[in-house]
Design a protein that fits this description.
The chain is mainly α. The chain contains 17 helices and eight strands. It has a three-stranded mixed beta sheet with strand order 1-2-3. Strands 7-6-8 form a three-stranded parallel beta sheet. The longest helix has 26 residues, at 80-105. It is globular and about 90 Å long. It starts with a helix and ends with a helix. 23% of the residues are buried.
Length: 443
C-alpha cells in the first residue's frame, strides 16, 4: 500500500513533466514510474482518468510543449494537433513499457507455475469464482487470456480485486454492511490521522486562503499557482471520488495515496518569507507528530487518535486492516506464557494468516482461523481462556454478523437439538443434515 501510494504520486508528477518537456529522460522516468504503479497494486487503473485529465488540461493550455527527442530536431509544439500527436505517442510508450514490466515481473511466462514446478491446480480464488458472469469485463478477461496478453496470475489477481470490491462485509461503529458506506473513508481519515497532522492540514488551508486573498491583486499569480498544483489536485480528487463510491470498506490503508498530496500541501507552511510564528507552529506540529508516533510504538497499525478514544477503543470503530491484521500473534503467545495456568484450555479465534503453533500456542481453533482448508471438527466448549482477534470479536465476516442476541441463542439451542437427533441415525439424509448442522454451529 505504501509502495503504491508513492508510485502513484511519482507517476502523476513524472507524467505532468513529460507532457511539458518531451525528452528521453522524462519519458523514461514517466513510463518507469507508471509501470511501478501497475505492478505495485491493482489500483493502477485510476491512472487512466488522472492522465486523461492532465492531458486535457495540457491541450487547453497555451504553453507549447518542448520536444527534445534525438534524432528529431528540438522545437516547441504549439499547435493543438501537434500536442495531441505527442500525447498519443507518450501514451503508446507507457502502455508498451507497462506490458513489458508486468511480463518481466512474472518471468515472461503466462503460466503461474515456474519451470520445473508441478502444474498448478488452480488459484486461491478460481477463475470460475472471480470471472464476471457477463458484460464487458468478462469479454476483456476472456480475450486477454485467450491471446496471452498478460500473465494469467496477473489477470486472475485483477479479476479477484474486481470480484471482492463488488460486495464485501464491513464494520463501522457497530454497524455492518456488505456494500459499505459513503462516509467510511472520511471517518477513517478523521480517526486514524494523527492530531498533529490534522492541525497542520487546517493551518495549511487557512494559510492558503490568506495567500489567495493577497494574490487576487495579481491577476496572473492565482492561475499560475493552480496550474502548478494540477497533478496533485487531480490525483487527490480522482482517488477520493473513487474511494467514496467504493463498496470495499475494509481498511484505512486504501486512502494512503491521498496523504502524500496533503504532506506536500502542508509543507507549504514553511514557504519562503513565511512569518516566524508560522515556522514555530510547524516545528511544534512536527514534534507533536513524533510524540504521537512514539506513544503508540510499535503498534502503529492500531493507532487511533483522541476522536476515537485512542488505540484502546479503536476496535469499537474500525477493524480488519484498519486495526487488526493478525500482527500481534507473538504477543498473544507471550501473554499466555505469563497468564495461563498449567493445563488450562485455550480457545483461539485468530484473524490472520500466521501459524499460531509456530509461536508455541496450543489452542482449540474457533471460527475464522485461517487454516487453509484443513479439516475443522465441531466440539463442545468448556472453561478456559478465550482469545479473540478484534475482527472476529466484532464478528464481521460471519453469516451471523453482529453481537449475540436472544434470537441467536434460540437458534443455537435448536441446532444443538437437531445435531443430537441426527447423531442417532446413519442414513444418507441424516448424514447430510448432520454436516449442515455442524457447519451452521461452526459459523
Amino acid at each position: 500500500d505504501v509502495t503504491s501510494a508513492l508510485a502513484l504520486l511519482l507517476a502523476c508528477a513524472a507524467f505532468w513533466r513529460v507532457i511539458h518537456r518531451l525528452d528521453w529522460k522524462s519519458l523514461g522516468l514517466s513510463a518507469g514510474a507508471t509501470s511501478l504503479a501497475v505492478v505495485a497494486k491493482f489500483s493502477f487503473p485510476l491512472l487512466a482518468p488522472i492522465f486523461l485529465i492532465l492531458g486535457i488540461v495540457r491541450l487547453a493550455s497555451a504553453a507549447p510543449m518542448e520536444l527534445r527527442l534525438q534524432p528529431l530536431a528540438a522545437r516547441p509544439l504549439a499547435r493543438g494537433p501537434e500536442k495531441l500527436a505527442a500525447l498519443a505517442a507518450v501514451a503508446v510508450v507507457h502502455v508498451a513499457v507497462g506490458l513489458a514490466v508486468v511480463w518481466a515481473c512474472f518471468g515472461f511466462r503466462f503460466s503461474p507455475a515456474g519451470p520445473g514446478m508441478p502444474a498448478q491446480a488452480d488459484f486461491f480464488w478460481a477463475w470460475s469464482t472471480v470471472l464476471p458472469g457477463s458484460g464487458a469485463w468478462q469479454s476483456l478477461f476472456q480475450a486477454a487470456r485467450a491471446a496471452h496478453l498478460l500473465p494469467d496470475a496477473f489477470l486472475n489477481g485483477f479479476a479477484t480485486v474486481l470480484h471482492a470490491s463488488g460486495e464485501r462485509s464491513a464494520f463501522l461503529n457497530g454497524e455492518y454492511s456488505s456494500t459499505g458506506w459513503f462516509h467510511f473513508f472520511p471517518y477513517a481519515f478523521l480517526v486514524k490521522t494523527p492530531l498533529a497532522q490534522l492541525a497542520a492540514y487546517l493551518l495549511a488551508a487557512a494559510a492558503g486562503l490568506e495567500a489567495w486573498r493577497r494574490r487576487r491583486r495579481e491577476p496572473t499569480a492565482v492561475p499560475r499557482v493552480l496550474y502548478a498544483l494540477v497533478p496533485l489536485l487531480t490525483l487527490f480528487a480522482v482517488y477520493w471520488a473513487v474511494s467514496l463510491a467504493s463498496h470495499l470498506n475494509i481498511g484505512h490503508r486504501h486512502i494512503l495515496p491521498t496523504y502524500p498530496v496533503l504532506f506536500i500541501v502542508a509543507g507549504g507552511l514553511l514557504r519562503a518569507r513565511a512569518p516566524r510564528w508560522l515556522a514555530l507552529v510547524a516545528a511544534a506540529l512536527v514534534a507533536g507528530e513524533a510524540a504521537e508516533s512514539a506513544a503508540v510504538r510499535p503498534n502503529y497499525l492500531a493507532y487511533f487518535n483522541a476522536f476515537a478514544g485512542g488505540p484502546a477503543n479503536g476496535w469499537r470503530h474500525l477493524v480488519d486492516s484498519s486495526l487488526d491484521w493478525g500482527q500481534n500473534l507473538p504477543g498473544v503467545a507471550h501473554w499466555l506464557e505469563r497468564e495461563a495456568r498449567p493445563g488450562e484450555a485455550v480457545y483461539l479465534s485468530y484473524y490472520g494468516s500466521g501459524e499460531y503453533r509456530y509461536e508455541g500456542i496450543r489452542a482449540h481453533e474457533l471460527g475464522f482461523v485461517y487454516n487453509f482448508d484443513q479439516p475443522r471438527i465441531w466440539f463442545e466448549l468448556g472453561p478456559g481462556i478465550y482469545c479473540f482477534s478484534a475482527s472476529t470479536l466484532q464478528n464481521v465476516y460471519s453469516d451471523w454478523r453482529g453481537p449475540w442476541s436472544p434470537q441467536k441463542e434460540r437458534t443455537l439451542l435448536t441446532l444443538r437439538r437437531l445435531l443430537a437427533e441426527s447423531d442417532k441415525g446413519t442414513s444418507p439424509t441424516q448424514s447430510v443434515l448432520r454436516a449442515q448442522v455442524r457447519y451452521a454451529l461452526d459459523q
